[in-house]
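Friendly challenge for the regulars: who can give me the structure tokens for this chain first? No prize, just bragging rights.
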Amino acid sequence: MKKIDDLTGEIYAKIATRIRERKSQRHKKRNEITDDNSVQLLSNIMNNKRLSSRNPYLLNSKMTYDIVTNLDFKSSYELIWGNGKDLDEMLRIVFEYSLEYLQNKSNDYGKIIEDCLLNFYPYARLSAEYDHAIEPFKPEIPDIGLAYDFAKKHLYFEISDDFKSKHRKYFETLETKKLPDKIITFVEKDVFEILKEYLKKHAEGITTYELISKIIGYETEDMYEDMIHGPEWSAHQPLTYTGETYKKVRQETIDAGRSYIDAIIHEQEETDYFYQIYPYPLTNGDFDY
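First reply, four minutes later:
Bragging rights claimed.
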């Protein structure tokens, strides 16, 4: 798991790079950005050098003001988090950290995240297969890992507008002082609330997971019966009220369930714009346990 200091370290490094690039673009000298007493501190900041006595969070209020004002940043938010693709990249990193942090914080947080990820149906399918199928019908770990990565991308794709809006609202006027604590608070309150609200509106993945699990249960039951009773079992199976074998009725349910799952995954592929941006390689015909 990425530690909060690793995350803030990336943020500080990007701030330093941003300042150096803007300084070069504006052809500014250090003493044109801040006063003579702070020139050395500005050098430290541009080299991502933090001193516990002067700038433990890289920037302080005075330097933030001087840099924003004299290097023509639109705001402290732009200075700290970037804009355009730079901002998008940073927010994705914060989102990834948020999921890891919440998953490791408690089982309750982790359950919410897992349920959200199930809305990427290929992941719901592979998760159900892994949790409930017997060997050798469990999916390969690399396949699950790939689906998990795509499920995280899909979740961010779904909530990104809300995530970006909440992030800007929370951090817009905040500087870098105690940035680690501020990020943790944002994750525990704002991000977790975003995930809960998303799950309230989108519980289809849970339903899909449960349905696949039930189908796998039927097939597993069939396999165990065959192993326990042997080949002669076929001629002595109990019958339904209409005279059909339970095995036949169960197989019809399994086949119908498989067809339905294939259909809804195909529908998601065809109608969810996410797949146009991130083509997923394992969605066709891999429902096999």
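Residues 284-289 have pLDDT under 50 and may be disordered. The two ends are 32 Å apart (CA to CA). Your move, everyone else.
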